[in-house]
Here is the input.
Amino acid sequence: MSARPITRRTIENRRSPRASVTIAGIAAVAVTLASCSSTGTTGATGATGTTSATSTTSATGRGSGTTTGSTPGSVVGQNPAFSAFYQPPSPLPEGKPGDVIRSEPLAGAPAGSQAWRVLYRSVGIDGQPIAVSGFVVAPTAPAPAGGRPILSWAHPTTGVADDCAPSAIALWSALTAGLEGFLSAGFVVAATDYEGLGTPGVHPYLIGESEGRGVLDAARAARAIPDSGAGSKLLLWGHSQGGQASLFAGQLASSYAPELSLVGTAAAAPAGELGELLTDDANTLDGVTLGAYALNAYTQVYGASTPGLDLGTVVKPAGIAAIPELVKLCDVIPAQATQLETIANPLIGSFYAANPASTAPWTELLSRNTAGANKTGAPVFIAQGEADELVIPATTNQLVATMCKNGDPVNFKGYPGIPHDTIGYTSAADVTTWMQGLLDGVSPPSTCGAAPVA
Here is the structure.
């Protein structure tokens, strides 16, 4: 679920789920990323809608998370939008999910492509119309007849505060696994920030339906950008938290976005069996951080409608006191990642009062947000690093077995020696090849019934 800064050269020196990297190492990664993302075209033409005066947001900017309430059942409330572009008009303009409210050129696109930051309509976790932010990237070459396939990318964990939104981070292109390969293949890449990242409101972290809608509506937004050349064929791709999002988007696509033709769904180390993940990672640095993100979001989203949903039943007082500070910080911004470590390290082994995976009503909510309950309806590719210590291979094996029982044609591939942080980058070329085969009408292989990944 965690995603810290990654270079485009396979593996960088980020901290692993069970070991910390030095501050100097984090800084070196940031410098490398900056050099990677400083090349290529910087502008785009034909942006639609109104534009903001703040066309570029620094990666070191801060969101303004607000702490509300002091009881264990209500820790952190709404985050206001942190720059003018992300502040939606009130009321929202009339329209349908995926309609672009505003867009503007986004600097940092790879050579031969153009990018837009977008604010688009979607449906919130409460069923009401909301604005969600993200970005769209398209080749500058003329689009083929019928339009380009849309690759809707779902990002891994960047944090839950507003300035953790990838579209607001200067290194957005380097955080998008496989971006240059997908553009070279002729795809339009759409990327959601998810509900409540950048825009007002709590981010429903690891809540599948919200994430899935954001992914599908980002694809719709790409079609609303005339110069993108986007058609109606849809491909879904995500890593970690984004793997959960892409799988939920696949499950929702036929009913929520029937005008899009889902061709295939790919996920790298998806946050699949949520109860197992929280259990496996409980006594690790990432387990504390991601547990804080998730349990706070579940409290905010489900607390009013779920009797007995109280953080005090699963988190110790010291953990409850730390959550408001943890959720303000982004783990893809080096200085903030260091702050996260400082706060979370003392809580390793003493954050949880009980296991949420076996404590009602948390158990039911985690199960509700575990992918695989419904058939996807299109071929699925799942990549898993065999050295992953965050999303343990056994949990992905379990998810794949469930999807195979549903009748999904799943191609499950393990990558020896690859950890969680880089599996999206390592597997992206295979994902591209697999997707191109689907578009060309090649019958996808299925590994259902084969031996699980070790």
Notes: DSSP finds eleven helices and nine strands in the chain. Confidence is low (pLDDT under 50) at residues 2-79.
